[in-house]
Amino acid sequence: MELPQYTLLPLEALKPSSVNVRIVVNPEAVRRLAEDIAVRGLLHPLIVRPEGGGYGVVCGRMRLEAIRLLQREKPEAFQRLFGGGVPCVVRELDDREALELSLAENIRQNTLTPEEIGRGLARLYEMGLSEEEIRQRLLVEVDTIRRAIKLYSRLAVALDFTSESKPGRPPLRSTKRKVSRAGLSTVARVVEQLQLKGAADVKPEEIVRRVAELSEGRLSTGELKLVAERIKRDPSLATDENKLKSIINEIMQVGYVERVVLLRKDLIGKIENLAEREGISFDEELNKIIEKALLAL
Q1: Do 248 and 269 share a structural domain?
Q2: Which of 37, 93, 158, 231 could form a Cys-Cys staple with 97, CB 3.0–4.6 A?
Q3: Is the pTM of this model over 0.70?
Q4: Is 226 in contact with 242 (CB distance < 8 Å)?
């Protein structure tokens, strides 16, 4: 007996699949999607498979989070749209098939970070697919596959220290703090660029491990990007552990907090020009401007 076009499943029965490739869930993007769903409804059902006594969401992690947000913050809209269940296409998929499907959809939509793509491709590679088979199945160039897997392999040396990337610093109540993978991937890319220019004689994976250990999970994604900016400006940080530790401690002591801020396009251009002229990052320049303005009040 064939399944109908979609099946209505209770939200409580749905969870991200163990092979879903998405690591980073942007809360602002989830909120925007939830608002859109509240107005226009769910345009595409979730693709799920039976998993762990419920159903694992293979395609549609962002939609799942948006529906959960509606349930918490807009119960009337949730009841109107999903009172009878969440529209899902139920498919019998093994791990490799589910991983391929999750990767294919998200690569096509261009919604994954390089780290997430690398992680997914590396898992397919570990499952026995060759680079050529991955290229044919996902329509991704071999060079892209190699670069993505290379990036993920560099982060893999610090997996014991890493966690999913979320805004703000990791919570202090955590007994085992974790470092942002997205932040470390930025550090790895900067060191790789310096290495190609001959400005740093050190492997990116070594710096990734060192930064992960020194930061002890106390730096957010944005703060790790500041570390990457400092290394870019002063390549000696890549080989001098004491200087690197000093920079990391300095950033931790300042106490940066990430906020999504709406800025005018013309102001962004001016701030970028000032930052480039002074050899600092956009965030550092913006903080200087705000601090100066507040002191003048």
Answers
A1: no
A2: 93
A3: no
A4: no
Supply 201's token pair: 């004689």
The answer to whether residue 75 is domain-embedded is yes
Tell whether 250 and 270 lie within a shared domain: no
Q: On the CB side of 218, how many CA atoms lie within 13 Å of its CA?
A: 13
Taking the CA atoms of residue 20, residue 148, residue 150 and residue 240 in that order, the dihedral angle to the nearest 10 degrees is -100
Residues in the chain: 297
Q: Which amino acid is at 237?
A: L
**Is 91:55 a contact under the CB 8 Å cutoff?**
no
Residue 148 lies in a domain: no
Domain count within the chain: 3
Radius of gyration of the chain (CA): 22
Which tokens belong to 124?
Answer: 């397919």
130-163: b (≥16 Cβ within 10 Å) or e: ebeebbeebebeeebbebbbebbebbbbbeebbb
Q: Is the pLDDT of residue 170 over 60?
A: no
Same domain, 174 and 226: yes
Q: Is the pLDDT of residue 180 over 80?
A: no
CB 178 within 8 A of CB 213: no
pLDDT at 60: 94
In tens, the pLDDT along 214-242 reads 887 778 888 888 999 999 999 999 889 89
Do 245 and 274 fall into the same domain? no
Q: Is residue 242, in this structure, part of any structural domain at all?
A: yes
Q: ∠ CA(249), CA(157), CA(62), 5° rounding?
A: 85
Q: Which of 13, 8, 5, 113 is nearest to 68 (CA)?
A: 13
Whether residue 124 is contained in a domain is answered as: no
Residue 19 has pLDDT above 80, yes or no: yes
CA distance 46 to 71: 17
Q: Would you say the C-alpha torsion 107, 109, 110, 111 has a positive or negative sign?
A: negative
Give tens-digit pLDDT for 104-151: 888 888 878 777 888 888 888 888 888 888 888 887 787 877 777 776
